[in-house]
Amino acid sequence: MNQEMHQKVKTTHLKRNAYLYIRQSTLRQVFENSESTKRQYALRQRAVALGWPEDRIIVLDSDLGQSGASAVDREGFQRLVTEVSLGRAGIVLGLEVSRLARNSTDWHRLLEICALTDALILDEDGIYDPAHFNDRLLLGLKGTMSEAELHILRARLQGGILNKARRGELMISPPVGLSYNSEGALVLDPDQQVQQCLRLLFETFRSTGSAMATVKAFQKQGLQFPRRVRTGAHKGDLVWAALGHTQVLRILHNPRYAGAFVYGRSRFRKNVDGSFTVVQLSQDEWQTLIPGACSGYVSWEDYQQNLKRLHESAQAMGQDRRKSPAREGPALLQGLILCGRCGQRMTVRYHVRHSRLWPEYLCQREGIEHAQPLCQRVPGGGIDEAIGELLVEAVSPVALEVALTVQQELQSRLEEADRLRQKQVERAQYEVDLARRRYMRVDPDNRLVADSLEAEWNSKLRTLSETQQNRERQREQDRKVLSDQQRAAILSLATDFPRLWHDPNTPDRERKRMIRLLLEDVTLVRGEKITLHIRFKGGATKTLVVPAPLNAWQQRATNPVVVKEIDRLLDHHTYQQIASILNERGLHSGEGKSFSVRIVARIQKRYGLMPRYDRLRKAGMLTVKEMAALLGITPQWVKTWNRHGLIRGHACNDKNDCLYEHPGDNPPRKAQGVKLSQRRLASEVVSRRTQEVQCEA
Q1: CB 401 within 8 A of CB 492
Q2: Three-class SS of residue 219?
Q3: Nearest to residue 15, comparing CAs of 79, 90, 75?
Q4: What local confidence, expressed as pLDDT, does residue 486 receive?
Q5: Which helix (H) or strand (E) covers residue 572, if one does?
Q6: 519-526 vs 337-339, strand pairing mode
Q7: What is the DSSP string of 584-603?
Q8: Contact assessment for residue 80 and residue 92, using Cβ atoms and an 8 Å cutoff
Q9: Residue 162 and residue 227: Cα distance in Å, rounded?
Q10: Residue 400 pLDDT > 70, yes or no?
Q11: Does the chain have fewer CB atoms within 10 Å around its N or its C terminus?
């Protein structure tokens, strides 16, 4: 054998270097398994015996404490491959194949390079020439067995861990708020402050429905949150710091706070560069899940409800399909309204009008994605008002009474089902008693029969226990009988809910939270009218049809009744008189303003109403010049005669301009005007003298 080994070593090999590769898998092995390290260093003497001088033997030991599962991060192995590929290596020495590599890819790459550069490989069993088929075949088998050995070792260790995890006995580092007692049982942290902080976190999330709102609540109150130091010199110490959003999400997603034992929630995936990616698994893919294994801060049902609320709130889970938590804006259906055309969840946009926010619901995802017009957009004021009225109507005494009656009917059916389950328990108890009597009657010395009857008895006992547990669990779920006090409290909602809903001090966020307790979602279809398909919690549905919202110009349009009244008043009144009459009646313009001369004039022009001047002319009335020519007097005398009633004039505007009625066949004469003028002059003289006497007095 030694002769054959020396025959493989040629002069060309001795002219090149000999590389001794040394590796231990972990630092613990380096310090504790020193004998293996000594055996690897002893291979230098094998190289010397084959003819290599001491100065041509290069030891590569920089990979001590590195795993051989991959060549990544193994500086010594990479240097070895480089030296072999450059033709500088005559032989590669390693105690065994597993020291060089436990990965078939790395091992066969080294063999291929050694075969191309005519480099030999030596291990504890002998020398191999990778260029020869038989040697290469043997080295390949050794590499495969080395990799399989690593898999077997890992499988043994992992199998023990999994077996212990299936029983719920595996001790895993607990999260903050949980700790192991002296008996190895997982219990709540004995620190009462830690317990109170965690309970406050879950209670805050239950009331706000948002992880970020929980963080803000802690910050607002100036509270700190505990955490455990996982690494470093202070490993295991409890420290207090500000609560973070990631920390809240991690706690809410951790089922151990619900008293469950879990194992295998994630999976490690190896990347090309040797790094690992952690992949979170869904609940049905977890390797072990044992609810109720220990004490918790919330129930399993509350934990599932928290996950559901987080899923609805997460932007990345559904994008426009997401059902975000209630926010501060006035849009009551924020996160609940669906587009009846494409099925996407509609978003909210706000507009400021008269110093007030007005919501608008938009279906814009596809439009943004493909640069198309928006699918639907509807002002939300009328929709929110209709939904509010529907909810107030739904929470009525009649509706609540019907709901309670249905609940009682369902409860009676559940009680009937419980009686049937009780019969199953009684039958299982009978079979247990029968198996026990059979076992007690058998001869104890007849072990063949006794063992069989004992096994049957134990099987019946397990069946009885499972049946009883199933009945108790089902009874706990069905135990929803309402007392008279609870019924009275529910019926009081019929008066409390409308009062609370219409209270101006009730925040919009609270109104939205009340809506989410009653409604599942609302599907909107806009046509000539807006159709709302409403789905309540529990599956009930209702359809509402509301008028389509008016455009901006339509909203500012004057009421047709007011326009008709202005048209009627123009026959007898001027703009100023019409504005005063309308204001006395409490009427307003389309913009909600009081009437003025300018507004009345604008309405007359916009709606094409005949002006008052044209109406008077159409009635046959004369202008001041026409009346002066007819009577043979000046225009000034026409106005004077009008003031004294000799002729009749009608104001055509607010500037005291008039149109005059035709005097007929017997018009007033000029002499009447002269006498009128003399009487007027005498009246003015008397009035002036009276004023002078009053001043002297």
Answers
A1: no
A2: helix
A3: 90
A4: 56
A5: none
A6: parallel
A7: HTT---TTSPPP-HHHHHHH
A8: yes
A9: 28
A10: no
A11: C
Q: What is the pLDDT of residue 297?
A: 92
C-alpha angle 199/200/206, rounded to 5°?
90
529-536/347-352 β-pairing: unpaired
Residue 310's Cβ-side half-sphere holds a number of Cα atoms within 13 Å equal to 20
Phi and psi torsions of 364, nearest 5°: -120, 0
Say if residue 135's pLDDT is above 90.
Answer: no
Can you give the pTM of this predicted structure?
Answer: 0.50
Report the alpha-carbon angle 343-340-384, nearest 5: 115
Amino acid 314: pLDDT? 66
Q: What are phi and psi of 397, to 5 degrees?
A: -55, -40
> Which secondary-structure segment (H or E) carries 24?
strand 17-24
Across 630-684, the runs of DSSP E, i.e. the strands, are 649-651, 658-660
Q: What is the per-residue pLDDT across 186-195, written as a single tens digit (0 to 9) for each?
A: 889 888 888 9
Q: Counting beta carbons within 10 angstroms of the beta carbon of residue 34, is it exposed (0 to 12), middle (13 to 18) or buried (19 or more)?
A: exposed
**What is the model's pLDDT at position 495?**
59
Task: Kindly report the backbone phi and psi dihedral angles of residue 342, in degrees, each rounded to the nearest multiple of 5, phi listed first.
Answer: -110, -10
Residues pairing with 379 in the sheet: 360
Q: For 239-292, how does the pLDDT look when each residue is reduced to its tens digit (9 = 90+)?
A: 888 999 989 999 999 999 998 988 888 887 777 666 778 888 888 888 888 888
CA distances, 578 to each of 248, 494, 603, 604, 621 (Å): 67, 48, 12, 11, 21
CB 195 within 8 A of CB 188: yes
Could you tell me the two tokens for 112?
């291929």
Residue 54 DSSP label: G
DSSP codes joined into one string, 277-332: EEEEPPGGG-SEEETTSS--SS-HHHHHHHHHHHHHH-HHHHGGG--PPP-SSS-T
Q: Are 257 and 297 in contact (CB under 8 A)?
A: yes
Amino acid at 325: P
pLDDT at 140: 82
| DSSP 8-state code for residue 652 | -
Place of tokens 């801060």: 297
Cβ atoms of 342 and 363 closer than 8 Å: yes
The rounded mean pLDDT for the chain is 80
Name residues whose C-beta falls within 8 Å of residue 384's C-beta, 6 or more positions apart in sequence. 330, 331, 332, 333, 359
Separation between Cα atoms, residue 361 and residue 344, nearest integer Å: 12
Q: Which two tokens stand for residue 478?
A: 């069905």
Determine the pLDDT at residue 254: 92
pLDDT of residue 428: 85
The yes-or-no answer on residue 295 being catalytic is: no
What does the chain come to in residues? 697
CB of 176 closer than 8 Å to CB of 228: yes
Amino acid at 507: P
CA distance 529 to 527: 5
Between the two ends of the chain, the Cα-to-Cα distance in Å is 161
Of 25, 146, 313, 589, the catalytic one is: 25
If DSSP codes are grouped into helix, strand and coil, which group holds residue 443? coil
